[in-house]
From TrEMBL:
Signal peptide: none annotated. The keyword Transcription regulation applies. Keywords: DNA-binding, Transcription, Transcription regulation. GO terms for molecular function: DNA-binding transcription factor activity; sequence-specific DNA binding. Residues 190-288 form the HTH araC/xylS-type domain. It comes from Jiangella alba. It comes from the Bacteria. This is AraC-type DNA-binding protein.
């Protein structure tokens, strides 16, 4: 069974830093379930070989388990954790970073109508599906190459292209396709997401970010909410609070200073929104 072999390969090759000898391929082995933690999703294919994972994006929750995969088409702030992982039965996962340039190149090679066309409106940035046998088989063949360094450099790019093709021609093909199109609604939202992420400390007018993304204000609001499950202001808040939590670990005892560094002029507003997001006040996370 492909899933059984996939588990064995991940169990053998997973490293603490999740990296592998194949560029853009990540393997995870989690032996203990922790509380949900905040991170950026990246643009990823994430396939579960064993266990279950839960991700939250805004008010949406995504559960996926062994034999299912998740596609993240925009780099967004998510909260997630593996469920029920133990040393005896660790959670095992395969990840592949999705590069827009690689998607665009494959689209150019495909004939017209060979992959599903995207909808006019931007889809949600995250989607979960059952992994078809062809996708599982390709992932297994890719990971087998970790045991054969001589073959890896030649064959891995070919299998990676096959995996990407399986995604493009699968149930989430329209979503992945938009990742590679410079004029897609998803790419316009991704442009706005990148700007907000880079300028999260600054106040902004939604009208200005809509213009930057190449959309009307009404289309921008509609598509941004569809992709991220948040308004632009809510998205900025998520980025600010995630960055604040990282800064508090490096600068314990300076709650007010950290709040100001991530864009909060009011210490009380910072404390209130931090507690609402993480369940504890920033002073609790600032303990050295």
């Amino acid at each position: 069974m492909p899933l059984e072999e996939l588990r064995r390969l991940i169990d053998r090759h997973a490293r603490p830093d999740a990296t592998t000898a194949i560029d853009d391929v990540l393997l995870s082995k989690v032996e203990r379930s922790g509380p949900p933690s905040a991170s950026m999703s990246g643009t990823m294919l994430a396939l579960i070989a064993q266990g279950e994972k839960r991700l939250a994006l805004g008010d949406r929750v995504y559960d996926y388990r062994a034999g299912q995969y998740l596609v993240a088409s925009v780099d967004l702030p998510v909260t997630g954790h593996f469920v029920g992982a133990t040393r005896e039965r660790p959670a095992l996962g395969f990840g592949l970073i999705l590069r827009p340039a690689a998607v665009a190149e494959l689209l150019l090679r495909a004939g017209p109508g060979a992959v599903p066309r995207g909808a006019a409106a931007a889809p949600s940035a995250l989607a979960v599906n059952e992994a078809p046998a062809e996708l599982l088989d390709a992932v297994v063949r890719l990971l087998r190459l970790l045991d054969h360094p001589r073959d890896r450099d030649v064959l891995a790019p070919l299998v990676l292209r096959e995996i990407l093709w399986r995604l493009l021609s699968g149930e989430q093909g329209a979503l992945v396709r938009q990742l590679g199109l410079a004029d897609s609604s998803l790419s316009h939202v991704a442009r706005a997401v990148g700007w907000i992420r880079d300028h999260y400390r600054e106040s902004f007018r939604v009208e200005d970010v809509a213009r930057l993304s190449g959309m009307s204000v009404s289309a921008f609001h509609r598509n941004f909410q569809a992709v991220t499950a948040m308004s632009p202001i809510q998205f900025q808040k998520q980025i600010r609070l995630q960055e604040a939590r990282l800064l508090l670990a490096a600068h314990p005892g300076d709650v007010t200073g950290v709040g100001h560094r991530v864009g909060y002029d009011s210490p009380s507003q910072f404390s209130r929104e931090y507690r609402r997001q993480f369940g504890v006040p920033p002073s609790r996370d600032a303990v050295s």
